[in-house]
Amino acid sequence: MVLGKTFDHLREILKPIMSKKKEELSEETLNSADNAGQNDIAEKEGNSPVEQEANGELDEVAQLKANLAELNDKYLRLYSEFDNFKRRTSRERVELLQSASRDIILALLPVLDDFERAEKSIENAKNLEAVREGVELVHHKLKNILAQNGLQALDSVGKEFDVDFHEAITKIPAPSEEMKGKVVDEVERGYQLRDKVIRFAKVVVGE
Questions:
Q1: Distances (CA, A) of 112 to 27, 109, 153
Q2: How many C-alpha atoms does 176 have within 13 Å on its Cβ side?
Q3: pTM over 0.85
Q4: For residue 15, is pLDDT > 50?
Q5: Which of 108, 96, 197 is CA-nearest to residue 152?
């Protein structure tokens, strides 16, 4: 009798606890079922988390391929433009050189005509002074034409020896103390074209 009352008393105490536990288990079961149902629906619709991640990676790869294709197209266009520019500038350079050669030759033709007339006059010349004057006139005309096109002769005698302008052929004892290290004689005149030496002067240097 006492044991029966004791069991009844324990049942009353445990009844609220068991009821709460059942509710928790029921809620957990419902949540699990709900999640499982959502996953089933997502899988049926093709939007499972795995597939969503795979689709995202595919989209990223497609975007990278599109960017690569765009950059490749820009590179090909730029290369084509550069190649056309290189050909055009090369052609223009050749035309410029040909034009410059043509201009200088046209300028020198009158000098050539003067030399031809001088040759004819020398054959029957009796006055050497007149011949000398004629040669000097032709020489003066030639120098003027070349100077107009930027050619300048280098004055070397008496100047300090400078490897930027002179080429020493030999060295001799200086005629005076002041001429040591200077150009004593000029074997071949040097020239510069618009401030750029195109032929070094061949000189004799005093030491």
A1: 117, 5, 21
A2: 5
A3: no
A4: yes
A5: 197
